[in-house]
Amino acid sequence: MKRTLTLLMACLLMTAIATNVAAEDADADGYTVDDGDCDDTDSTVYPGAPELEDGIDNDCDMIIDEGTNAYDDDGDGVTENEGDCDDNDSSIYPGAPELEDGIDNDCDTLIDEGTNAYDDDGDGVTENEGDCDDTDSTIYPGAPETSGDGVDSDCDGSDNISEDEECDLACHEEAFNLMDSNDDGEVSLEELMSIMCLEENCTAEESDMVDMVLGMADTDSSGTLNWDEYWASVDTDEGDPGVELMMDMADADGDGFLSLQEIIDMMNAGSEAAGEPPMSEQMETYFGSLFGDADYDGDALLDLDEFTAFYAALDSEDEDLDPETMMAMMDADGNGELSLEEWLGFMAAVGEEPPDDEDVAYIGSMFDIVDTDDSGGLDIDELIILLAAMDDGDDEEGEEGIDCPFENGTYCGYIGPYCDEEGIGYDPTRCGTETAHWCLEDGYGDTGCVQVAPACQAGLFPAEVCAAYAAYDHIAEHDSDGDRVIDDEDAFPDDANESVDTDGDGMGDNADAFPEDASETSDSDGDGMGDNADAFPEDASETSDSDGDGVGDNAQAEAEASEAAEGVPGFTLGITVTAMLGALLIAGRRRRI
């Protein structure tokens, strides 16, 4: 019995101790074991504690290091500390398969490598863009084609130069017979000159050029060309023999490569021989653009293949210049803006037929339309708009773009570049924004804007366009100070505290103590009279000084009244006599009593 009692007491004691321990906050973190503290020996561990990157479950939620770089948030098996460059996407981690999605899936800083969207050979064209061999930088759409080499360099499905570029055997026989004017089977220097010179009598420069051409093809040094020599010079897989001759002529230092300056010098020599002026700065810029496009290896020199591509681009009537190159060519004063005069001057410089008055008026009107900042010239963005608008600005519908919602065809030319999904300037956000902007401008709200919202609801316009249209904040776009009053209607467009000046005195109504009185703006003493009219602007008891003596009229009146009272004889005496009589009367009454 005694032993049992002893055991019972021991159990009760242990239970009490355990209860006290569970109820105690051993680490002083505000939580006990009973409160859910999963480690009451560590003050950084308790329910709701900030999770630290320490390998411990700090917040007692049975998850370790969640929300830190040591935790795998997306469950792909890799943490940020281990190199996951987007731990919110399970398809992104080091070594992940690279997908054609515009994202760096494998975290190697390259996007879409190994897919058809990546330019593997660095020639500027991907497989998605038509590169038929993305392992060879000399093969891409538009690359120089060498006929018969077994390679489709320009990705047109054929190893041959197109028929309109290729002169066959019969073509060359006809050319040789034309040059051989005396039908002796030999083409002399004189006969060659008669064909190649620009005028009846060759200049010295032209004679030297023709003599050099003859000398290169005259392999037997006879001074003439027979058919075999001629055919040998043109029947070559190396490309256009004329291009090779031109390269040899232009290669002043004989290093087998052409610099831009060598090409310009050759062209200027030809112009001089023809009695023409040298190349203008704008044309030099144009040549420089074509040179840069043909210089595939970027060494500022053209080899024969590169010069062949340069010559083909120069000879192409369909060569499209990018807007930046056009700006550089036409911007004669180099101020970064293109004036109408510079445009017309460039057209004349490159030999274009002078536009008539109607054409000049049209181009001028387009300039005015796209010159949105009214600077008198077009910057590069405005030039892009002009080029696209001149292509299809008169159409009520773009080639493959959005139907123009406006009756005003001129404006359709303006927004056309942004809204034409096949155009060079397509920008759906800008399309929606510009459309909304136009609809909210005075004078254009009823010219077709009512069609835009229904068209968006019907799904006729791209979602991005409609979203930008709906999100456009007309007031914010025209409210410099953010007071929700557009600048054109705001008397103080740079002051958010003011927008109205009723009396036109230059002070906003909020700050103007007299908003309807142009002669007054403040009342310093708060007496209801403006400071300009108040003779005493710091004294609320005075407003005027009629006699100009520096004393306000109110104070003057009081002083005069006081002086008048002091100047009445007997007034004080009357008071004294009355007082004395009263005293005597009182004294007499007392004696009687």
Short note summarizing the structure:
By secondary structure, this protein is mostly helical.
Defining key terms:
593 residues, mainly alpha, two-stranded antiparallel ribbon, 20 helices, 40% helix
Descriptive overview:
The chain is mostly helical and 593 residues long. The chain contains 20 helices and two strands. The chain has helices at 2-23, 169-179, 189-196, 204-217, 227-234, 241-250, 260-273, 281-294, 304-315, 323-330, 340-349, 357-370, 380-392, 409-419, 428-440, 452-457, 463-471, 474-477, 553-566, 571-592; strands at residues 186-187, 225-226. Strands 1-2 form a two-stranded antiparallel ribbon.
Write down the overall geometry.
flat
Report the strand count: 2
Mean pLDDT: 74
**Would you tell me the structural class of the helices and strands?**
mainly alpha
Order of neighbouring strands in the sheet with most strands: 1-2
Q: Report on the biggest sheet.
A: 2 strands, antiparallel
How much strand?
under 5%
Tally of helical segments: 20
Question: Helices and strands in order, then pairings?
Answer:
Elements: H1 2-23, H2 169-179, E1 186-187, H3 189-196, H4 204-217, E2 225-226, H5 227-234, H6 241-250, H7 260-273, H8 281-294, H9 304-315, H10 323-330, H11 340-349, H12 357-370, H13 380-392, H14 409-419, H15 428-440, H16 452-457, H17 463-471, H18 474-477, H19 553-566, H20 571-592
Antiparallel strand pairs: 1-2
